[in-house]
Predict the structure.
Amino acid sequence: MLSVVRRPLRCFVQTTVAMADALAKVPDVEIDPEGTFKYILVRVKVKDGDVHKDIVRGTKSAQYHNHIFEKVNPAMEALGMECKCLGGGKIEHNSKEKKLRVFGESTGFGKADHSVSVEKLKSAFGDYEISWSDDTK
């Protein structure tokens, strides 16, 4: 009887580790190297799982915030993940001065929690000065 309990538990643990490994391979931050552009904060989780992480994506090529999500979502689905946009804003990236400024909001998705976005940016740009505000410009 005890061995019947162990197998499902072992399978559960292996699956949970595999989900965490898959999420770990998703970069926390992917933004343009320079300029002012729209960004979104996205919660990514393994389908049918509880393990998740938040990621930041931003690009000048997006006219609207949903254009970023329309690229991120299918890419994550291909990896067996599902996404939810938590909000958006803008990032001002000055690579010469090593500064990032997070501000504004998305009309369609609402304002991202910029403090969460900044923590993610700090992990990718540790030598940068990074700030955020609720300013719209």
